[in-house]
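I am still learning, so would you mind making up any protein sequence you like and the tokens describing how it folds?
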Amino acid sequence: TVSVEPAPELGFKLSETADNVLSGTIKGIEVADDGTLTEGLVLRVYYDRISYDYEIHFVELTSNKKLEEPVSGSALFGTVIRLSDVAKDIEGYILAEPDATATIGASDSTQIIYCEYIGLTVFYRYQILGGIGGTLSINDGSAAVGASPEKAVELTVNTGFYLEGWKYAVGDGELQPVPDEWLSDDKMTLKVTDTRADWVGEMIYVYAE
């Protein structure tokens, strides 16, 4: 009697469904002209890949801040997961490495896969309409989508002029009134409070007149 002891490699297990032949008795062997065994004993050992649990975390690249709730799943050992296939669409962010992959290894613990995102930025240009009538404390600013610019804009009105109001335009779009919540009570200080995802790729012009 001849037998074989299964010895699966890491990440594999003895198949429970395949036609394994782990032992038997050799009754006789005949070798055909092509070298194959026509009679005798052939032992067969089949292995299956093991399935492992994983969890995908959606975080900001620079801060590791959680952007969405994790997603759980399981996959066979050696499965290659492309991050762009499992990433979520998150407003104001893009995937840092869309071509990156993660490979499921052999682990008794839940494997953590990180989808890292880069925050999108909106740029602002502050100006005095017509170029006269006052000065501004800064002329350029930026903010991540969903955030406010770090610096507020302080307006100083020149003698002989008065502030008529503030307006803004998205790219080459039409001028429209600045929302009241962007302005201090005396209208002399401006700070954008609702940087929007659909502004990405456009210069936002803000004018005092």
